[in-house]
Specification:
single chain, about 160 residues, transmembrane helix, transmembrane, membrane
């Protein structure tokens, strides 16, 4: 396989990972990071291995930061992990019951129902569900930002190697 074809395949996997970081169906940051590690291992040399190591650091940082920041946000707003777990379980069920949008409907509905049961107040449950949705947005932005930095580092390395 030519180096151009290989680079294009890696680019496609990176694009799939970036999409995954937004839609949250696949772990986008991890996919981008692994694609760059494969590229670095095949390319070799100081640049290839440096970019591969950087992608591992960024992928791990993305995983840790997205949970820390979202968790801290939810903790400050008083939304317990149990409600998120119920939302996640119903999101997975929803994904299979209603393709594509079921994940989101299940997560929102599950979080709302859990908070309604816990708080006994529909208004407070809606507020808590809104906080859970904002925390999800925070985690998406963190993962996407670090995946984009990884992709840009890879692109820069490709341009250095191929030009």
């Amino acid at each position: 396989m030519s180096s151009l074809v290989f680079d294009l395949l890696i680019a496609l996997v990176i694009v799939a990972g970036l999409v995954g970081a937004v839609v949250q169906i696949v772990p986008g940051g991890l996919v981008v990071g692994l694609a760059v590690v494969v590229w670095g291992a095949v390319t070799g040399g100081t640049l290839g291995w440096t970019v591969a190591a950087l992608s591992v650091v960024l992928a791990v940082a993305g995983i840790v930061l997205k949970y820390l920041l979202a968790g801290r946000y939810l903790q400050r707003r008083g939304v317990p992990n149990r409600s998120l777990l119920v939302g996640a379980v119903l999101g997975v069920v929803g994904f299979f019951v209603i393709p594509v949008v079921g994940l989101f409907i299940g997560f929102i509905g599950g979080t709302y129902l859990s908070e309604l049961q816990r708080l006994g107040d529909a208004q407070a449950a809606r507020r808590a569900t809104g906080h859970a949705m904002k925390a999800t947005g925070i985690s998406i932005l963190v993962e996407l930002a670090l995946a984009l930095v990884t992709a840009l580092a890879w692109l820069g390395a490709v341009l250095v190697v191929r030009v």
